[in-house]
Amino acid sequence: MLSAALFCLVVAISDGDTLKVRCGEPGAFRQLTVRLHAIDAPELNQPFGRRAKQALSQFTYLKTARLDCEHDEDRYQRRVCRVQVAPNSCTDARCAKTLDAGLAMLTVGMAWWSRAYADEQSRTERSRYEFAEVEAKAKRAGLWADRRPVPPWRWRAEHPRPR
Would the pTM of this model clear 0.85, i.e. be above it? Predict the structure, then answer.
């Protein structure tokens, strides 16, 4: 279940599927850490990790984003949201927020579609995400240029974070 849409400024990119946003009015700002819904990008120390971060930055940095978030935070205290921004081709601040950042990351081959969350997506969104991943693989775009890219969930299991 999603909460009401928030409109926030993207102020930092943590990695290929996480960003920081500033919401609210001057003097009453709150900063949120946001995880993109239904994708998983390479970790920073993983091959293509830095390129994934750079791609997400090119799509979203310093743009006003529409966030449609789940009510609960993930285990890292991040809000899990669908993030939409104006496409780079539009330079007017009033442009419609029509670019789905998660879908864009799949399209350029900088993330995997998280099928584990497919049941939380509409049939249309699932189809778009699946198609984008299949097309990126076929074109050998981004991380798919690697013959055997390691999914981030497997990489994390093989490289646990120090406690």
Answer: yes
